[in-house]
Amino acid sequence: QVQLVEAGGGLVQPGGSLRLSCAAAKLVFRLPDMGWFRQAPGKQRELVATIDNGYGDPFYADSVKGRFTISRDNVNNEVHLQMNNLKFEDTAVYYCTSVTFSATGPSAAGSWGQGTQVTVSS
User: Which residues on neighbouring strands pair with residue 72, listed in sequence order?
Assistant: First the structure.
């Protein structure tokens, strides 16, 4: 499995923006279908967004639609998550991993890295 490294988290005020990055720790040919997940304190890890390996079609959780944008850079093998209009409830550790798609929707398929902390606070 590809080892991934997340970066870009931080402390931001409500309404602010952050851009998260996810890169393979070692050289890989091409990242597979990818997704961002997050886990807030005391809550289960949840899917935020996915992007497929082909046309780059995105999928978003309802809670982030219109505010977050997932993208991929296939030259540098990176996946990004642009987060705008951040809210208190976006506070969580954000992880990227590979995903698979089934009739029930996307789900995590790879291992978890350290994640990157996003804190929205005034």
Answer: 79
